[in-house]
Backbone:
């Protein structure tokens, strides 16, 4: 028997997403995973809404905003989905069954009321966040009762009690210091008073500091909740985060584009962040930052094959296993903007004006490629921002006059080679050019981050798939 003290040192915060919470079968699988880990560790479970529920709640909110638009059926639908689940997974004579149904009815009634309120007042993002937080409340509550009914001592905690964010509704940013204080004050005493308790905490939302309004952390935000909790508990426990996903882990190229791929079994946070930046979307992007900041190891594991050795571990340290290049990734749809002037304009002042203009208007710059001449700047932006950028530049006092030639190419892609040390390894750029050239792929621009972690080539979109495969074979398939 492991003593409680030593058992408590290791704490695993595991996050179950919507696909782990879709029906009786997946709830049973979730429970099995929890039981297995409880043999060795203390756990905190973070859960997102049941699959599809957040979308339904957003739809409910939108429809409620339109006077006269029918929305009751969405609430009925959400009620029925949860009711059916409760009927399937908790025996009706148990106390947990009644508790779950009562909670469901109460919360569904609150949602109905909110729907009515929106019809009377002006719609606002804070009400939308409040409404969509119900998805996590319902799923997490039912999961808690389900675990309890199976003899796993569990307690439901709503994350508005502990997670503080800014007031950027819809995509709120966590305030880690305040959250850590609250976790110390509220969560740790509960954990210490009953070390055998499994806490089930709602993912996806927190509250603003001052007026305690519910905020959501952006789509897929339950991942981030798990990371934030681990960060806040890092001084009290040896924390690790496990994200259960419907994939094995992070791949070294996108399986939809690359003919060959393999699993990245170990990758450092800095490298994973590059992957995330250049288009790989498996985790909420901020998770990596938060875990890195707290020096917390984390894993992505396959929900359908939980004991498999095939999974991804993220580490603080860069693993140098002889391979410099870890992954090839791409952003398929980009636009490239080139601005030129006949005059020689000092680049530094211009660059800062350019980036403030675009930044202030929420146009995100994906790459910058700067020639040594001082009358030309090329940069890449999201395809969807292309019209906005064009308008901003042409309309601006400075760029509209001094930089009179503005060219936008909307048919480009970016391919990136990622790995710590890329830029300090001789020969990589040459090999990229050679291999792409041999395959008739024209490189329109190159860009390199100030980090030494990526080398990026800008190419025509028609060539993207080919380029990925060429580079994968050149750098990953053969030891470089
Ligand atoms: N339920 C939320 C969403 O669908 C958060 C999450 O899944 O992590 O985005
Ligand atoms: Mg999800």
Residues:
């Amino acid at each position: 028997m492991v003593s409680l003290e030593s058992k408590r040192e290791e704490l695993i915060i595991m996050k179950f997403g919507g696909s782990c919470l879709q029906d009786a079968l997946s709830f049973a699988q979730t429970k099995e995973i929890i039981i297995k880990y409880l043999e060795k560790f203390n756990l905190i479970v973070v859960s997102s809404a049941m699959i599809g529920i957040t979308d339904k709640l957003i739809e409910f909110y939108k429809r409620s905003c339109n006077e006269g638009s029918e929305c009751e059926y969405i609430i009925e639908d959400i009620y029925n989905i949860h009711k059916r689940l409760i009927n399937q997974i908790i025996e009706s004579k148990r106390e947990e069954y009644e508790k779950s149904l009562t909670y469901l009815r109460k919360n569904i009634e609150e949602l109905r009321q909110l729907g009515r309120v929106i019809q009377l007042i002006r719609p606002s993002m804070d009400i939308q966040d409040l409404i969509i937080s119900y998805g996590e409340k319902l799923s997490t509550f039912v999961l808690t009762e389900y675990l309890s009914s199976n003899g796993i001592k569990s307690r439901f905690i709503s994350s508005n009690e502990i997670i503080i964010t800014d007031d950027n509704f819809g995509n709120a940013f966590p305030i880690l210091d305040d959250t850590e204080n609250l976790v110390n004050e509220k969560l740790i005493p509960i954990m210490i008073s009953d070390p055998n308790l499994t806490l089930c905490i709602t993912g996806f939302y927190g509250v603003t500091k001052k007026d305690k309004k519910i905020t959501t952390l952006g789509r897929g935000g339950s991942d981030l909740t798990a990371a934030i909790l681990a960060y806040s508990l890092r001084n009290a426990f040896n924390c690790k985060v496990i994200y259960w996903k419907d994939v094995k882990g992070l791949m070294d190229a996108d399986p939809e584009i690359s003919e060959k791929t393999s699993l990245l079994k170990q990758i450092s946070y800095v490298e994973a962040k590059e992957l995330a930046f250049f288009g790989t979307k498996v985790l909420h992007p901020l998770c990596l930052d938060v875990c890195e900041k707290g020096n917390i190891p984390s894993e992505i594991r396959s929900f359908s094959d939980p004991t498999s050795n095939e999974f991804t571990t993220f580490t603080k340290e860069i693993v140098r296993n002889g391979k410099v290049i870890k992954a090839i990734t791409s952003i398929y749809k980009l636009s490239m903007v080139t601005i030129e002037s006949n005059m020689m304009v000092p680049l530094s002042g211009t660059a800062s004006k350019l980036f403030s203009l675009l930044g202030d208007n929420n146009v995100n710059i994906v790459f910058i490629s700067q020639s040594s001449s001082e009358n030309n700047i090329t940069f890449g932006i999201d395809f969807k921002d292309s019209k906005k950028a064009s308008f901003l530049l042409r309309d601006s006092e400075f760029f509209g006059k001094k930089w009179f030639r503005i060219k936008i190419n909307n048919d480009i892609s970016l391919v990136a080679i990622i790995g710590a040390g890329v830029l300090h390894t001789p020969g990589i750029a040459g090999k990229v050019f050679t291999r792409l050239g041999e395959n008739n792929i024209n490189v329109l621009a190159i860009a390199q981050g100030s980090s030494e972690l990526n080398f990026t080539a800008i190419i025509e979109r028609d060539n993207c798939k080919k380029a990925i495969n060429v580079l994968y074979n050149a750098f990953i398939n053969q030891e470089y």
Observations:
- The domain at 10-245 is CATH 3.40.1160.10 (Carbamate kinase).
- DSSP finds 16 helices and 17 strands in the chain.
- The chain has a mean pLDDT of 91.
